[in-house]
Write a structure and sequence with these properties.
Elements lengths: L1 E2 L5 H5 L9 H10 L2 E4 L4 E3 L7 E14 L7 E6 L4 E2 L2 H4 L8 E14 H10 L2 H66 L25 E8 L3 E9 L3 H19 L5 H14 L7 E9 L4 E7 L33 E6 L5
Antiparallel strand pairs: 1-2, 2-7, 3-7, 4-5, 4-6, 4-7, 8-9, 9-10, 10-11, 11-12
Length: 348
């Protein structure tokens, strides 16, 4: 804070509050009031303080702030040259500051004490009317600003409400989908063999872990009397619910063929024909499907685009057969299949 030299009375006369007062009064104010300079950021007073003076801005600007230093801090306005701040504490019966005031730009101000103000009004009562007009204008501007702020906040609340509704609907949809996927997973697991046959001379084991809750993987073991088993391992292109539904269709059609098809190749070709008739787009299924005879330890199978069976002897040596072309089901009319019979070594 720096105190300036005596101010020119003409400068005081440019302040709207003092417009129309005699030159002698301007001379008196210039002689009795000391103009002071404040640097940017200087806090002149804080909301709730007791006030006994107000400021008239001669140069620079001063910010009016509500709830200073709190999360609700809000800039009410900026007072510039010719305007005044802090007058409300002189007019209010409790004498408390209604807002905080901080220097925005380097400011030159006149400081009026309560005694200075009372004396001025006693000499020139019409200043009360001038001040009331200025305060009325400020009140209207403050009301309009508050209304605009309220409208903006209402729009924000309306937008937030719409977004909340959308998020809630999305959450419900996700929870519903998750529940349906859990049910679908349970149904798909029930489509697999719950127990594997126990037959002399053979030990069976199986495990399937879908990449997602549900998928297009499938296996089955169906006894044919005491000596033979139908073994199926299949996979549908893609993941998730579409693959699971397609696999459900393919497995049902293949099981229907198992009862009367004379050979594994005939069953797989019949399945391919039925999938083609349904025009399932680019989806397809790969499969190894065959009959294992315990008495001869042979597996007669057909392979359609699936990885070939792996055969190991009792020592773990690879005895797997060679492969020929085997195309996936559901894509080609003139289907190429890998048809073979492989022997499983004792203990293999």
């Amino acid at each position: 804070m720096n105190t300036l030299r005596r101010i020119d009375p003409a400068i005081i006369g440019l302040v709207p509050l003092f417009a129309g007062i005699p030159a002698t009064e301007l001379e008196h104010l210039a002689a009795t009031l000391e103009p002071t300079t404040f640097e940017p950021g200087t806090l002149l007073f804080r909301e709730g303080d007791t006030g006994d003076h107000f400021y008239v801005v001669l140069a620079g600007s001063i910010a009016i702030i509500k709830a200073l230093g709190t999360p609700d801090e809000r800039l009410v306005g900026v007072r510039g040259v010719g305007e005044f701040v802090g007058e409300m504490s002189l007019l209010n019966t409790d004498g408390l500051r209604t807002a905080s005031v901080r220097v925005y730009e380097r400011a030159d101000v006149l400081i009026f004490s309560r005694a200075d103000f009372d004396n001025l009004l006693s000499r020139h009562p019409h200043l009360v009317y001038t001040m009331l007009k200025i305060l009325s204008t400020r009140l209207r501007e403050s009301h309009e600003a508050a209304l605009h702020d309220l409208q903006a906040k209402n729009q924000q609340l309306a937008k937030a409400y719409v977004e909340l509704q959308a998020a809630q609907a999305q959450l419900i949809e996700q929870e519903t989908l998750a529940h349906e996927l859990r049910l679908a997973h349970g149904i798909q697991m029930q489509m697999l063999p719950q127990t594997l046959p126990e037959l002399p001379g053979a030990e069976l084991g199986a495990c399937m872990l879908p990449a997602r809750s549900v998928g297009g993987d499938f296996y089955d073991v169906v006894p044919l009397g005491d000596d033979r088993l139908i073994l199926t391992v299949a996979d549908v292109s893609g993941k998730g619910m579409p693959a699971a539904l397609y696999m459900g269709l393919a497995s049902s059609l293949l099981n229907a063929q198992a009862a009367h098809a004379p050979t594994p190749e005939a069953a797989v070709r019949a399945l391919n024909d039925q999938l083609l008739r349904r025009e399932m787009g680019s989806m397809f299924v790969t499969v190894v499907y065959g009959v294992f005879e315990l008495s001869t330890r042979t597996f007669s199978y057909v392979r359609a685009g699936h990885p070939a069976p792996v055969v190991l002897d009792a020592q773990g040596n690879d005895c797997s057969p060679g492969v020929t072309t085997g195309q996936p089901l559901g894509l080609f009319d003139d289907l190429l299949l890998d048809v073979q019979t492989v022997s499983v070594p004792p203990g293999g």
